[in-house]
Amino acid sequence: MAKGNQLTSRSENYADWYNELVRKADLAENSEVRGCMVIKPWGYAIWERMQQTLDGMFKDTGHVNAYFPLFIPKSFLSKEADHVEGFAKECAVVTHYRLKNDPDGKGVVVDPDAKLEEELIVRPTSETIIWSTYKNWIQSYRDLPLLINQWANVVRWELRTRMFLRTAEFLWQEGHTAHATEKEAREEAMQMLHVYGDFAENTLGIPVIRGVKTESERFAGALDTYTIEALMQDGKALQCGTSHFLGQNFAKAFDVTFANKDNKQEHVWATSWGVSTRLMGALIMTHSDDSGLILPPVLATIQVVFVPIYRKDEERQMVLEKCDELAKALKSAGIRVKVDDDDTKKPGWKFNEWELKGVPVRIAIGPRDLANGKMEVAYRHSQSKEVVDLPENIVDVIQPKLNEIQKAMYAKALKHRQDNTHKIDSWEQFQEALKANVPGFLSAHWDGTPDTEAKIQELTKATIRCIPLDNEQEDGVDMLTGKPSKQRVLFAKAY
Amino acid sequence: MAKGNQLTSRSENYADWYNELVRKADLAENSEVRGCMVIKPWGYAIWERMQQTLDGMFKDTGHVNAYFPLFIPKSFLSKEADHVEGFAKECAVVTHYRLKNDPDGKGVVVDPDAKLEEELIVRPTSETIIWSTYKNWIQSYRDLPLLINQWANVVRWELRTRMFLRTAEFLWQEGHTAHATEKEAREEAMQMLHVYGDFAENTLGIPVIRGVKTESERFAGALDTYTIEALMQDGKALQCGTSHFLGQNFAKAFDVTFANKDNKQEHVWATSWGVSTRLMGALIMTHSDDSGLILPPVLATIQVVFVPIYRKDEERQMVLEKCDELAKALKSAGIRVKVDDDDTKKPGWKFNEWELKGVPVRIAIGPRDLANGKMEVAYRHSQSKEVVDLPENIVDVIQPKLNEIQKAMYAKALKHRQDNTHKIDSWEQFQEALKANVPGFLSAHWDGTPDTEAKIQELTKATIRCIPLDNEQEDGVDMLTGKPSKQRVLFAKAY
């Protein structure tokens, strides 16, 4: 583990680099509750911007927000057969509703008289409680579609946790929609996949593959699970969001029917879709470097930071005045700016801090710069800097740069994925490729059976990430079994 | 209980009126989990606007958001003596972390092998987990102040619940700040009281009394609890938000010290402050009437709704065109508008629906109006309407009306409070006043002892809501004990 503000380099130990970056860039830290993290202010501000952007996209596509209970009666989880079979059983279980003062001394103990008749599960996902509610909300086709989203915390008792990527408690949104027809529900599931894809690419600057999961990787209870998959710098894939076509499974389990236009009762068609604080992990592992986080400008909570440089009071006043003037101009153009005028910290400390925290553009101005009519502009994504004339209109200089950075970051990530996506045509080649430093996406023929899929995973730990939506049809043979195949699928080691 | 969309009148049964309004205006409903509510889309949209406004006010006063774990180890609750003594013990307790398939049949059971070593409590409030975290964040005076807020769900296992006012799970924000000096912490607690007061008055249109709680009504662990108190239509008080000066209690319990400028270790000073979805209850019970909810324009998610009136298709097109044109003009001035062009509903149904949901202004336009160059404008707060000329610039007509409505709603609520605040000088008068239909705020002398306070509550169920901040000093005698008193305090029956 590296000391002070220095991070372990990615090449040295990628996992250490990640954990140190998360902690030192003030994104999150482990709490005293096993598997639960504290999301620190800098990390939470980034998550807030993700939320705001996504929330706007959900509302633009006709969705509204609501809030359903944190707790789910245990019996609800048993109602949908695939859901109970397939969903992980690692859940937080509430069994009692009262504490009492310890009769033998200090502190509190659980009151044994306050046992719940039926245990409550802290929601790991909300299909069951929501569909038991929808039953009362849906009578007629006029009540459909129901297009509802929830921002919430959920708990899955993961054994091996890692900040943002896999934690016992995490924050997410879960959309749950109800439709009169299969066609409409399928279109909704697909629409939300593209909302996620567009968000990942345009806001986070993360190129993603939009695809469909194989049967064995489907969400428990879904007929189809769509996914966006990204490739991290270390050549492992990260599932960034999923959208499920649930058919009539939950409607049947919770007896949710509606009168159609001919006044006949039909079961409702459903989708659900979600992204979580895991996106923070995707963001970090797509863009950051050995000096810390790199935020794409569209997402950055601070896009431009000014670091005034001075020794004497009169220098301070002059330099700060200029920084404030430039900052004000940027702000009035809607650019998010901070002037770091903290006197208890030195400029070098501040340079390091904002580099670690990923602010896209840093502008330093000292008395000599002022005298020469110059400023130093540093770009986080390229670790480059230039001294330029103090502009007439700073917005004209900075706004194009921010756009350029956003594009460059996406292009770099895309190139990384392209460079590390390989067509594989034999089992030997496949095994070899997985041993590489950056294993990447491996596009290979698969015979379409869950058995072969499981076998490949057992032998290599690689999984089928998805069958891309726009997949080329091509005759071939499964690399392991030699059985015929109609198309390649994307394998990778994954988080 | 009233039928269809009709509500029980307030005079008939205030509690029924409230419950029916909450349900029929699509604000919330009880869930299948005891004491937990489902916040429905219309209710949640109002809460979202409350959140946005408050969040902006918090940020303008230098606060940032973060997120701390849902769970608190049981032992943490025992660390601050007053907190453990004073805080209610009704909490949801997590004892297990896994389910398993029932070996005897269908469904799931709790896995007895998955018992937690230490039980986890679903947070009823987060002082303990947050101060155990702050310990690692605070070393020096340079780390202070720490001005952090959290938006979260909390659980208190209330026995008697009522939607928004008292539910097992509720949504809230909790600010937790750390300061180097007592003075600064006291100023923070007071500042946030005023943020709450201003928000209640300017956004919600609810006049509030800003005051300090008596010792027995303080938050468990606080040295001072400040409160904003409002008077509901039925003459009962509702506590709308509290801000606590916590002294060094939590810093001492969790050993949080800092090196001051002289490099000496001192304990940190603390505040905490919160408002919750209870504000939804305050909003409803301050402004609404027997026809449903009434939203103040500043808060309303839809400020103006257009209801086009037509029979034939050609009428529909003409009328809708005009509505859309006017709506567009309002939107571009930042006014929140909806054109209700749903063909499956009749105008009468829509009138009733938007009345129930509290939209401040409703504009109806039919073919005859169009021919005459008129529109019908209805105002929800006064249940009045007028036919006016179709204006050149609709913004010039509507914007002043919205401002006027906001003021009128506040003024009406203020008058209600003033009319129902009484100076009480004898015990007989006090008992008599509490028997009134609208008991109101009773301003009376109190001898300052918790014993007398408890006695009065026991005899009348009235409690001391607060000692107003700007309280006049006046010699008098306690109405029950006859002991000397320096000032009057505010009594009321309360929610």
List the helices and strands and how they pair.
The structure is a homodimer of 495-residue chains.
Chain A: H1 14-24, E1 28-30, E2 37-39, H2 41-60, E3 64-65, E4 71-73, H3 81-86, E5 93-96, E6 99-101, E7 108-110, E8 115-122, H4 127-137, E9 146-155, E10 169-179, H5 182-203, E11 209-212, E12 224-231, E13 237-247, H6 249-253, E14 257-259, E15 265-267, E16 269-276, H7 278-287, E17 304-308, H8 313-332, E18 337-339, H9 347-357, E19 361-365, H10 367-372, E20 374-379, E21 384-389, H11 394-419, E22 421-424, H12 427-435, E23 441-445, H13 450-460, E24 463-468, E25 473-477, E26 484-492
Parallel strand pairs in A: 3-9, 17-18, 17-19, 22-23
Antiparallel strand pairs in A: 1-2, 4-8, 5-8, 6-7, 9-10, 10-16, 11-12, 11-24, 12-13, 13-16, 14-15, 19-20, 20-21, 23-26, 24-26, 25-26
